[in-house]
């Protein structure tokens, strides 16, 4: 399937992988790229040198393009922003903020810049600052989210900008891809389904929690402080919600969650850890290779779109 995004990124399929913290490391990114999508290394809160090493390891596994997601709330965002230039990365996505201050540097290096946005206002602003595309991410997504659903956000952003739009949030199969295209998107970003990929290094407890999840199993914490985060309900989300209701400060709550995503992803502590995942977790039923996932999704999307 050819769209402005497949042309822009030089990929076979209009699928990019989410830049998920602790999850989007070199094995997953290389596997998605090898399967014809765009794999991403998630910078998350990692220091620049860690991201550099992940990029180099991914390049050893694939000759196809890979991108990097720069998480703008990270204390290391500035370093990571420079590392992507030094390592010759061709595509950068950004999350959880406004990447304006890095845009000139990235554009000068020939990098395609694709900010993840959760509002029409930021999408328009990013276009004005030279973004090559935007990811319109609805609140069905896992992790840090905005307020709008994918169904409402994508067509409003498509109408507001001329650059191509990538839909994200709640997409996990060919039906979701076809629906996103009907809304005017020219590619999709997929996170939660790739968490359970065979090539994903995520602890099996985390994968099984996603595979067993029901439609209503995720919860959003942190809304009262303007930092909503979606994860699967457990002891951690219940405790967070209780303290949030008691009026604990953002700092106290942040302190409580420090390191808890890593604990779930790497140690498999899905009770006290943070199990970030999107609402589509309820539909995800098995571990497959990235190639199996992508081939299956594209075959279904092509059929539904009559291609
Ligand atoms: O960034 C994400 N998802 C993430 S980042 C992350 S790490 C983290 N963990 C706990 C707390 C905070 C971060 C886990 N998941 N998705 C992209 C995304 N960006 N979703 C929403 C936004 C966003 C929201 C507001 C982008 C820009 C924005 O406003 C910026 C501005 O200054 O106007």
Automatic annotation (TrEMBL):
Protein keywords: Dioxygenase, Flavoprotein, FMN, Oxidoreductase
UniProt keyword annotation of Flavoprotein present: yes
One annotated GO molecular function: nitronate monooxygenase activity
Top-level taxon of origin: Bacteria
Keyword rRNA-binding: no
InterPro entries given in the database record: Aldolase_TIM (IPR013785), Enoyl_ACP_red-II_put (IPR017569), NMO (IPR004136)
Function noted in UniProt: Nitronate monooxygenase that uses molecular oxygen to catalyze the oxidative denitrification of alkyl nitronates. Acts on propionate 3-nitronate (P3N), the presumed physiological substrate. Probably functions in the detoxification of P3N, a metabolic poison produced by plants and fungi as a defense mechanism.
Protein name (record): Probable nitronate monooxygenase
Biological classification of the source: Bacteria, Bacillati, Bacillota, Clostridia, Lachnospirales
């Amino acid at each position: 399937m050819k769209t402005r995004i497949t042309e822009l990124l030089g990929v076979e399929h209009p699928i990019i992988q989410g830049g998920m913290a602790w999850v989007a490391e070199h094995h997953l990114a290389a596997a998605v790229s090898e399967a014809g999508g765009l794999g991403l290394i998630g910078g998350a809160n990692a220091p620049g040198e860690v991201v550099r090493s992940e990029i180099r390891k991914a390049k050893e596994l694939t000759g196809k393009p890979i991108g990097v997601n720069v998480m703008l709330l990270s204390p290391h965002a500035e370093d990571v922003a420079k590392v992507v230039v030094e390592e010759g990365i061709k595509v950068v996505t950004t999350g959880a903020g406004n990447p304006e201050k890095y845009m000139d540097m990235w554009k000068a290096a020939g990098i395609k810049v694709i900010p993840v946005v959760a509002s029409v206002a930021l999408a328009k602003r990013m276009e004005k600052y030279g973004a090559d595309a935007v990811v319109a991410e609805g609140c069905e997504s896992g992790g840090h989210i905005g307020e709008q659903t994918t169904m409402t956000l994508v067509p409003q952003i498509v109408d507001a900008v001329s650059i191509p739009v990538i839909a994200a949030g709640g997409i996990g199969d060919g039906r979701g891809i076809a629906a996103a295209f009907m809304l005017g998107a020219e590619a999709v970003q997929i996170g939660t389904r790739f968490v359970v990929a065979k090539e994903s290094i995520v602890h099996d407890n985390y994968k099984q929690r996603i595979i067993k999840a029901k439609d209503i199993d995720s919860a959003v914490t942190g809304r009262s402080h303007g930092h909503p985060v979606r994860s699967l309900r457990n002891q951690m989300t219940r405790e967070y919600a209780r303290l949030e209701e008691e009026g604990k400060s953002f700092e106290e709550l942040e302190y409580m969650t420090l390191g808890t995503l890593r604990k779930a992803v790497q140690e498999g502590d899905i009770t006290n850890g943070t199990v970030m995942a999107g609402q589509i977790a309820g539909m995800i039923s098995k571990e497959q290779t990235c190639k199996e996932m992508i081939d299956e999704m594209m075959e279904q999307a092509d059929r539904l779109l009559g291609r």
